[in-house]
Amino acid sequence: MCADIPRNRVPRVAPLPEPEWDDTLRAVTASAGPLNVFTTLGRHPKLFRDWIGLGTRLLMKGLLSDRDRELAIMRTAHLRDCAYEWGHHRRLALAAGLTEAEVAALRLPLGDRDWSDGDLAVLTAADELNERSTLTDATWTALSARFGERELIELVMLIGHYHMVAFALNALRVQDEEAH
């Protein structure tokens, strides 16, 4: 469930029942599980197929390290106030090597924790893209010292992608599987 929605609210778009799944949705759920994000967005099969390709590229086949990817996603989930995204990626963040203390600090102002320069650059990028829809020259310079051109493109696309996912999860009121 997304953070801005009381637990007693129902989804605006219910997950698609299993007998109605197409081959793409069956393949995705066989691999990742029958998550409500998939079974809800699967109600639009053509859009789902295109979206899952980009999502898979960014999540599992990207150039960024798992840690950098999850820092960017978790900060975005926090900034977009999306508990569903936060909950699912919290597990991935811990698996990527973030500590419980680091995960908790992702909800705080960036200056409240002594992040490494690399972590801080990624988190600052998420904050700036959220606030300004662009990056300052200082942040771009910090990121460029660490990443190549492809990684820079991927980071910006990753953060934008997870903004879009949070918007959909929040607006459609996709419920966490554990809430039921």
Automatic annotation (TrEMBL):
UniProt cross-references to InterPro entries, sorted A to Z: AhpD-like (IPR029032), CMD-like (IPR003779)
Domain of life the protein comes from: Bacteria
SUPFAM superfamilies: AhpD-like
Entry's Gene Ontology molecular function annotations: peroxiredoxin activity
Carboxymuconolactone decarboxylase-like domain ranges (all copies): 45-126
Name this polypeptide is given: Carboxymuconolactone decarboxylase family protein
Species the sequence originates in: Actinomadura physcomitrii
